[in-house]
Amino acid sequence: MSPQWPWRGRTPEPSPTPLRKVIGLQRLAAAVVVFLAVAQPAAAAAGAAAAPAPSPGESRTAGRFGIQLLEAPVNRRDDPRAYRHIVDHLPPGSVIRRQVGVANKSSEPLSVEVYPGAAAIHDGQFVGKTGRAHDELTEWTTVDHSTLKLPPGATAPVTVTIRVPRNAVSGERYGAVWAQVASKGKGTIKTVHRVGVRVYLSIGPGGEPPSGFTIDKITPGRTDKGLPQIKAQIRNTGRRALDMSGSLTMNEVKGPLRAGPFAARMGTALAPGQTAPVIVVLDERLDNGPWKVRLSLTSGRIKKTATADVTFPTASLWGLAVIPDAYQEPLGLGAAAAVILTVLASAALGYRRIRKHRRT
């Protein structure tokens, strides 16, 4: 569930600076496992950098420690991604600050390192680069506490500062703010755990670049275990990265049965211009159909719904791809206001005509 408002302001800097909502740290200690759990361990030689780590922001199961975003811009209060990731658009020369909370969920004291790291989006995944890989964004990013000594059950805030140079080139940057714990293993081997908060930063003058996507085709299929599934091919048509989520409902084309909603598999990310599939695994009791499926997908403020008639194959393979029948997009506030004004204007014009007709 999204945090509750109101949000509290902060003194502006030379750039758009976030207004913030402070989540109580006592609440964070209980909530951090919900938002971000601990990454899978990776073995590395003693003294070496951390081994390749999973995508920041994705759920993991170790449960020893966690990190969570505590602040977001007030102008993104309607953007679900802003509650989990650092998402912003800044002109060159800007400075922003965000607070994250790092929590020790174990029964032992922990020494936690906090640092910025490079990341990329490829093959439909947001991936943190190996170890402490550097790029432009990491050079711009600092933390006020690089090492935390946390007693059992404790939580500590860390302020993340991003300073964009005045000569920064327009475009998207991706990164992560990592919390990392190294534990001793046998001999010279140690195990490194890390979790992160993703950073999606757009640089450029003026307003934020548009976001958008299309659902190009819908393909029915079956998993290796025979479960029916739907694969939707998504194309990022905008100029901001996307994090896809959503659900699917379905009903028989020639019958009364309905099923769903079924949640889309989380984790699909697309940089501008990229294409990747979103998978929805369904109930094993569903027959081959035909079925009319209704797929609703969301990334941040953008939502689209597509429908298609599909028939599932009998074997564990993909069936025929189908072009969606139609799109349905919710009206934004501006579009909704325009519709209301049009209706009111038409009603007023009709009323005037009726009065004029009665007078004559």
Descriptors for this entry?
12% helix; 5-stranded antiparallel sheet; mainly beta; 7-stranded mixed sheet; disordered N terminus; single chain; 21 strands; 360 residues
Mean pLDDT: 79
- The 3D shape can be described as globular
Percentage of helical residues?
10-25%
Integer-rounded radius of gyration: 24 Å
- Sheet having the most strands: 7 strands, mixed
Descriptive overview:
- This protein is mainly beta and 360 residues long.
- Helices cover 12% and strands 42% of the residues.
- It has three helices and 21 strands.
- The protein has helices at residues 25-35, 136-140, 333-359, and strands at 42-45, 65-69, 86-90, 95-104, 110-122, 125-128, 141-143, 147-150, 155-163, 171-184, 189-203, 213-222, 228-236, 242-243, 245-252, 258-263, 269-270, 275-281, 291-299, 302-310, 326-328.
- The strands form five sheets. Strands 1, 3, 5, 6, 8, 10 and 11 form a seven-stranded mixed β-sheet that branches.
- The radius of gyration is 24 Å and the shape is globular.
- It starts with 24 loop residues before the first helix and ends with a helix.
- The model is unreliable at 1-55, 57-62 and 330-343 (pLDDT under 50).
SSE topology:
Layout: H1 25-35, E1 42-45, E2 65-69, E3 86-90, E4 95-104, E5 110-122, E6 125-128, H2 136-140, E7 141-143, E8 147-150, E9 155-163, E10 171-184, E11 189-203, E12 213-222, E13 228-236, E14 242-243, E15 245-252, E16 258-263, E17 269-270, E18 275-281, E19 291-299, E20 302-310, E21 326-328, H3 333-359
Parallel strand pairs: 3-11
Antiparallel strand pairs: 1-11, 2-4, 4-9, 5-6, 5-8, 5-10, 7-9, 10-11, 12-13, 13-18, 14-17, 15-16, 15-19, 19-20, 20-21
